[in-house]
Amino acid sequence: MNLSIQQGAPRFRAPRLAVAAAIVMACLGIVVAALPTHDGSPVVCPFRAVTGLPCATCGLIRCTRALMHGRVADAFALNPLDAAFLLVVAPLTIALLLASARAGVAVRIGLSAIERRFAWAMLGSLVIANWAYVLVSQG
Q: Tens of pLDDT along 80-95?
């Protein structure tokens, strides 16, 4: 793995439509998570409606709501992968995009073909393990 931080690198330019869609989705997510509900589940999952089983991201809204109220342990109990994503990956991605846009700093991670396959396999394994946890805890 080759990790480098480059100053003066070409700035990352996200398509305007992608940025607008991301902002709208984030705002909608925050609004839905902040809305009070009677049964704790404001959104009906299409996967669950069809199969009767929770999907791999089942509990994302409740997880977000728990994090918004400072209940980190509850968020991880609902869906560990969603909670980790919301606490680590999302802020890190935003910070890296802001660093690229503001200071022209780019973080480059070069992976060989074997490392790339290993990373995808690990990500797939995490999603499957998380889904198994969700099936056992919420199913």
A: 998 998 888 888 877 7
Contact 9, 106 (CB under 8 A): yes
Encoded tokens for 63: 């997880």
- Per the structure block, which two tokens stand in for 135? 């099936």
Segment holding 119, helix H or strand E: helix 113-138
Q: How far apart are the first and last CA of the chain?
A: 39
Report which of 136, 130, 139, 109 is spatially closest to residue 56, judged by C-alpha positions. Answer: 130
* Cα→Cα distances 88→8, 82, 93, Å: 26, 10, 9
Contacts of 126 by beta carbon, 8 Å cutoff, 6+ apart: 81
Across 61-76, b (16+ Cβ under 10 Å) vs e yields bbbbbbbeeeeeeebb
**Which tokens belong to 14?**
């996200």
29: left (phi over 0), alpha (psi -120 to 50) or beta: alpha
Confidence of residue 72 (pLDDT cuts 50, 70, 90): very high
